[in-house]
């Protein structure tokens, strides 16, 4: 069962995950982080950046793999996930740019971009800790409903709801790309620790389906139920539809401190 942690707010969630990442890097200097974009993981990156400013440590060997990328945005576009990861993660944390991988959404090399990415992940030894958000459709990465639990990095068509949700980052809804290249659910499931964060009432239904619903490709988030080490970090509104919430709180309250998340 996934471990469910209900935090007071986004900031507390960010601090909890950031402290886990710090401990990971202390134990393994070339830790491989799975990096998510979107609004949800920002408190994690902000908390980690703050912690590194306060108490510096060597992060020069840390490696990072983004979950996904839009297809067809010009290089350097302000909303390409390469740009976003550089702005929100690499610079604030002081990571080494050459150690950061983002799927290649250039239309000229799409045919082999997925397999190239899988090879790079394998060569790095796989992801130690994968940060995840979840879409209102239940998507992980850009694996929309129907995505195979065995899927690997490949090109997908974005669901209309996901394009609408991401329109806030673009000048017009029509500017949101139609296609993306995303790690598959099979790729994500290979990471050794999944940390799924969700904040706000608009995520409550997707979280309920992911944590307590049937395991089904119609709810990509439910793939977490097939993984042996998952932490789900939620604020109260995102946790509101969970039926066994009291039990999750009981488990967390009685957890031995040494276990971490
Ligand atoms: P958000 O996106 O963090 O911006 O809500 C999450 C997702 O689409 O996976």
List keywords for this structure.
15% strand; Rossmann fold; alpha/beta; binds 2-phosphoglycolic acid; seven-stranded parallel beta sheet; three-stranded antiparallel beta sheet; 10 strands; 261 residues
What does this structure look like?
There is one protein chain. The protein is about 35% helix and about 15% strand. The protein has about 260 residues and is an alpha/beta fold. It has one domain (about 5-255): Rossmann fold, CATH 3.40.50.1360. The chain has a 7-stranded parallel β-sheet, with helices on both faces. It has a 3-stranded antiparallel β-sheet with strand order 4-8-7. α1 packs across α2 and α2 (about 40-55) packs parallel to α3. The model has no long low-confidence stretch (mean pLDDT about 95). 2-phosphoglycolic acid binds near residues 38, 39, 134 and 139. 2-phosphoglycolic acid binds near residues 38, 133, 134 and 139.
Fold blueprint:
Blueprint: E1 3-6, H1 10-27, E2 32-35, H2 42-54, E3 63-66, E4 68-70, H3 81-93, E5 100-101, H4 110-123, E6 129-132, E7 154-157, H5 160-166, E8 179-182, H6 185-190, E9 194-198, H7 204-212, E10 230-234, H8 236-239, H9 245-253
Parallel strand pairs: 1-10, 2-3, 2-6, 3-5, 6-9, 9-10
Antiparallel strand pairs: 4-8, 7-8
Helix pairs in contact: 1-2, 2-3
